[in-house]
Amino acid sequence: ALFIAQLAVYPLLLVLPLRITQPVGGKQSEMSEKEDLLRHIEQQQAILDRRPSFTDPKILQSIIDIMDEVDQEVICQKIVLAVARIMRADLCALLLPPDEHGALAIGCGYDLKNENMIESFTISVEDLPEITTAMNNGEVCNFRVPTDFPELEKISGSLSLETTGPVLFVSVLSSSTEPISGLILLSPYSGREWTEGDEYYFNILARLMVHFLQHSREMANLKSQLAESHRMELVALDLYEEARVEHQLFLDQVSAFQERE
Question: Most buried in the list 54, 84, 163, 256, measured by CB within 10 Å?
């Protein structure tokens, strides 16, 4: 509910930057002020026109499917597929925090243009300094000019792409400020640039998806614990049955001894 409410309120936020016109002298200054205001409105309307469609039945169904999923591999695939569709990204991938060997893992990804999943792979944190820092600090990064960031060549090379195109990355932290995961959008085919509006929506969407991922992990852990508890219960029953049989055997031996006496 909070997620939907945030999306609904967003258009109202667009009017907040509209500054109060300050007193100026002359008609020329007044015209310039009106032109600036009109330009600002047009920019904000462009953001609204490009915002994701959360009312699309297919998208809503994909979100519902994610909520019901508990398998880690499947939910990862469903998340990147849903995010790619919602954000209209050429490619979306889910990143996991650095491991003990200092490597960031691409858990899974989806190529929307070619409609295929991307297998997981790892990249050293030394090769992705900006993204690693953003991951650890829970930040949003908008790489508008890929050539300005050599680390993006590592990603494009790992994905067998000529370029990543403009890249948008967001990291989500836990309540204890530990990185949980990150989502990254690439534009290798369309060259689409990511706006401030995209950043806003993507940040909310990423947090929602990571919440589902956490829920899935918790359910998987609970299922594992229940399975282990059931296994231990069976082991205990087997031990009890063995002890009972041995005890009965002992009683039978004592009874036989007494009869011989």
Answer: 84
Q: What are phi and psi of 15, to 5 degrees?
A: -85, -10
Which pLDDT tens digit goes with each residue over 191-249? 999 988 888 888 888 888 877 777 666 555 556 666 666 677 777 777 777 777 777 77
CB 81, CB 69: distance < 8 Å:
no
Beta carbons within 8 Å of 16's beta carbon, 6+ residues apart: none
SS (H, E, C) 185-204: EECCCCCCCCCHHHHHHHHH
Sign of CA dihedral 56, 57, 59, 60: positive
CA distances from 42 to 14, 37, 52, 139 (A): 11, 9, 18, 28
Let me know the angle formed at the C-alpha of 59 by 16 and 185, rounded to the nearest 5 degrees. 65
pTM: 0.65
Residues written for the chain: 261
How distant, in Å, are the alpha carbons of 54, 67, 101, 178, 224 from that of 13? 18, 29, 43, 30, 44
